[in-house]
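Worked example (supplementary).
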Amino acid sequence: MTLLNQKQIQKVSAAVDGLDPMQLAWVSGYFSGLSAQSGNTLQGSITDSLVHETPAAQPSEKITVLYGSQTGNSKKIAESLHTALELNGNQAELKNTLDYRPQQLKKEQKIIVVISTQGNGEAPDEALGFYKYLTSDRAPCLENLEFAVLGLGDSSYDDYCQTGKDIDSALEKLGAKRFHDRVDVDLDFEDDVITWKKGILSKTEPKSDTVVSFAPKFGGAAELVPTAESNVNNYSESNPYQAEILNVLDLTTAESTQNAYHIELAIDPDGLSYEAGDILAVLPDNQDVLVDALIRKLNFNANETVTIKKGQFELHTAFKHHLEIANLTANVVKTYAGFIKLESLQALLDDKDALKDYLNGADLLDLITDYPAEISTQDLVASLRPLISRQYSIASSEEIHEEEVHILIKPVIYTKGEEERKHLGVASNWLKDKQLGDTVPVHIKANSGFKLPEYAEEKIIMIGAGTGVAPFRSFLYERENQGAKGNSWLFFGEQRFRSDFLYQTEWQKFLKDGTLEKMNVAFSRDQEEKVYIQHKLLEEAASVYEWIQQGATLYICGDINNLAKDVHNTLVQIISEQSGKSLEDAETQLDDMKISKKYQRDVY
Amino acid sequence: MSSIVKPLPKIHEQKLVEGSSEVEVAKDKGNYLRGTIETAFADQITASIPDDDTYLLKFHGTYQQDNRDLRDIRREKKLEPAYSFMTRMRVPGGELTAKQWIASDNIASNFGNNTIKLSTRQAVQFHGFIKYDLKKAIQAMDAALLDSIGGCGDVNRNVMCDPDPSNAEVHAQVFPWAKKVSEHLLPKSRAYHEIWLDEGKGEGKKRVDSAAESETEEPFSEPMYGKLYLPKKFKIGIAIPPNNDMDVYINDIAAVAIIKDNKLQGFNIAVGGGLAMTFGRDDTYPRLASDVGFVEPKKLLEVCKTVLEIQRDFGDRTDRKQGRLKYTVDRMGADNFKAMMEDRLGYKLETTKPIEFKTSADKFGWHQGSDKKWHATLFVEHGRVIDKEGSQLKTALREIAELNTCNFRLTGNQHLMLVNITEKSKEKINAILAKYQLSADASELSGMRRNAIACVALNTCPLAMAEAERYMPSLITKIDPILSKNGLFEDEIKIRMTGCPNGCGRSVMGEIGFIGKSMGKYNMYLGSSHQSDRLSKLYKENLDEAAILAELEVLLADYAVNRNQDEKFGDYVIRAEYVKETIIGLDFHD
Ligand code: SRM
Ligand SMILES: Cc1cc2nc3c(=O)[nH]c(=O)nc-3n(C[C@H](O)[C@H](O)[C@H](O)COP(=O)(O)OP(=O)(O)OC[C@H]3O[C@@H](n4cnc5c(N)ncnc54)[C@H](O)[C@@H]3O)c2cc1C
Ligand SMILES: Cc1cc2nc3c(=O)[nH]c(=O)nc-3n(C[C@H](O)[C@H](O)[C@H](O)COP(=O)(O)O)c2cc1C
Ligand code: SF4
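After joint prediction of all chains, the assembly is encoded as:
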């Protein structure tokens, strides 16, 4: 918890906004001075601190903290590390890989890379240039460079923290020296990051001791220097905001084969604030059916106390609120296998494909049913990952929908293999069953990789199917609020016009008032042959290319495996056909567009 | 009383006049029924089209509608109304070949709501076409030599004619006139062919009948109608006494066939019929056509055209509720109207010949015609051909059509005739009817149900204030016991219901008529004649079902006891002074 309320924090952060590291350090000294002394001696303490600082003005070496982030986690971590380094008296520089010329690396002494993995083992869009450079043969020899890498990832993906690993080994290949071992952190990274930071700080102690003496003084002040992101939202995974449910509305009709819920939540603007393109993280509870089935199957005692990272809880509470039981990862299975020593399970672990196939959709109940064995309650919970927030693209505009945030969800429901038991996605099903007045734990995740262009006159092409259309609703309300007219084009795909045209009347309104210039729709099931969004793009190939040439920003949101791939390939085809470029060159153009933020994706 | 009659506007030059209605403006901009229909149908974001185009689309036989049952729930879900399109085919005299019936059946199931609606004007309606299916549906009609040109709109509508060929010799002379008149008064614009049949885009097979004669026509002119067409719809019916099964006098032109020794002598012509009124506007009223004279068959076409042209020139174009010929006639006075007709025709009309109508009812079941051919009149409740729990009517009729041994003929009472059937085919058809437990003569039903008409109303009609087609059957089920109790079960009492005062189900031509005022509430009208030569009059207002049944308890019991020999219900209520007699129309509200 911070000592100040949101308003105060914003004031403070406004005050320190744009100050360079040394100025920041001075200000923090000034603050602590304020807190320590009374008015008259204050002057003294300031000059005093000024005097003391001078030697710190030229510390021996410069440390560059580089981050590559999609949803802001890496950025946050990099920022807090950067602040800590400076408070330690280091000369540290914070850079987004996007704004960093990799050629610079030759001149660097020490770099710390904080980078996440996206797609299926791909680098975040904003780090693409940096990644390509390091892994290309153009990369120079970097003997004089020291480095450390923190990889962010999600162990439920095959290529866990792949980008971090690649960067780490690339730097090694180029001759750079690892001054701290690479660390990979999972979705529940908060604790691991603290340990990692300590390690880094200890290995970066500045030579000049004068400054060190400042360190304790600034200890408390550290939290007082908020970063761009955190001043918007000091709520987090570990400290979520309780948002009240205002409305849960299924946008599809009875004839539809699916449901899509538009959900409105009340937020306190002093507590939470977001921009179009940002993401709402929702921390769900597990489904009672699953929790109870588990406890019955294991015939454990629901009230037995277990110890997990978060503390001590009754088993039932731990299962329902704190542990991921609906999804498995290789790690979970490994740990479990470690405890039970079961041939068949070992075999599964050794067969990568079989394992992957099994992990896809199996939950803890499947695991203990398919691979039953005596296991202590404590050992079992120790094998599990904590239950973490699910992310939802924000569909509203803070300006228009005052004190509200909207999201659009489709419940995930599926069966695994032959078994007829329904697997219910945790958050999506939990959310759709919420009643008006219930509260849900949320926090905002800034999504710097998915933002409207700076100027309303700049063209945008929005491509989204299903729930992928959510952020575009936010975009258009935002542009309406800016009084933007035209220069916007939406491609939307769903199953049927009659029953699944999500937000239809709102798009019609935007078209009518000119906020939206063009809209194309693909309804896959309204005719014999399936028609998808990419077909509509092709139909409009010439104009799409023209818009791209006119500097339009492309946005893609929705399903990562189908939509994102197909649309991407179609864009490559369009660019190549319209410009006469080879497919490779078209690919490169799109990569460059990613780097220049003209091609932004929010796919899941 | 006649103070409600507006002065006659001065002759219209097919130019927008001061205060023209928005429909007139749309026609003026519409470039002979084209408007922006083609682009509107290409728009993928909405299943609707702009208002101006909806006005023009009616001339193509198609109305934009939406499922009124779903309006609220869809609005809540941020979805536009469930728009769909209703297309009304042009079927002069209600005549369809077996092949055309099969085509209609396919169209209904492939593109529509899987029902065929037999209208009160012997036309076929399809409900529930989705925007992007309409063109396919119209092309399917075209492939079966069917079209919907002038199914609606400010032009001449489907021409009605007594469908019953029992008197073969006579019927054969009269019936073809329905088609002749219809084609003679078709609009000439090629808009329909261009938009729906891709004429001029190489693909268009111009099969529709109007094409043949329009081939030579300038696509951008309407020699007869002119750019602004008529001020409102225009209707023509041809009756063959003693049958008045289509209530012939409610038409703008009522043509009554005059027969002598089984030879068609010509037609009595009456002008200015129409049933619609608007609640709260006494200057709107139902009216029966006024006799103007007799014409020989060969003059029928030019006479109809002349009447239509006078209406074109003098009809009210500022207020659509005053746009029908009936008001023009009252403004001129029937005699002056006749004088203008004769002036334009260049000859005098002979005096009206005496005629006698006996009934407006359909004769259900099998009848053998003078030519020994068999004809069957089948009961189709309120004209809705549908497969439902307990009745596979649609399937049965399709099987009958597949025999390809008879023609299908719609009646003005929303029922269906199978005509020109040989002894052998009769057995086959009976077999199919039996297989689906359908009775040929509806004898198990009460005389009232056999003589009931209800308009479509909810959920498709945008103008409906109350239920009609969906409600009438259950109401009659509650009236039947009252009839039995009073020994009136077999009596042919004409009962009609419409969901609003437009009178599509000709409610004011019912011996008992109901007009919806609001959900569940109806005005009750009494006193039309069984043979449909007299309008009814308002009896009670705003009755709910209980009140309706209570009133009928009294009326029917009284009628059963006190009626004279063969006295019809509609005549009795006047003699017994439940209501005053309505003479022609201006006195309707008195
Ligand atoms: C289908 C039918 C009733 C039925 O159950 O069979 C019908 C149905 C409609 N009529 Fe009618 N009318 C039908 C016979 C009539 C009749 C009876 C007759 O002509 O024998 C009348 C009274 C006679 C007359 O014209 O005065 C009639 C007088 C109207 C009117 C009032 C016209 C007027 O003079 O103002 C309207 C409203 C309008 O045109 O402004 C109307 C309008 C309509 C519309 C198209 C509603 C609309 O304008 O959007 C209804 C479509 C409902 C639906 O969902 O199908 N309908 N309509 C009949 C089709 C006839 C045909 O095949 O052409
Ligand atoms: C940046 C971002 C934005 C997002 N925005 C939205 C949004 O706007 N709307 C929205 O609805 N979702 C959105 N999502 C997805 C959302 O975060 C959740 O992943 C989704 O709601 C499922 O969460 P859950 O807890 O209900 O399901 P979980 O309990 O997390 O289960 C999901 C898992 O079930 C498994 N699974 C799912 N289907 C099958 C199947 N057919 N067969 C086998 N296994 C299967 C998969 O392993 C999947 O990972 C977004 C995700 C990201 C990363
Ligand atoms: C669409 C998507 C794809 C992802 N793919 C991977 C992956 O392939 N491997 C992995 O280890 N983590 C993957 N992750 C998890 C992210 O790396 C993890 O959420 C990380 O905390 C994001 O950090 P950031 O906010 O700095 O981008 C993926 C996350 C998303 C949303
Ligand atoms: S009478 Fe009224 S409610 Fe009935 S169909 Fe005609 S317009 Fe509709």
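Two points are worth noting when inspecting this output. The longest helix of chain A spans residues 560-579. The CA atoms of residues 12 and 225 of chain A lie 8 Å apart.
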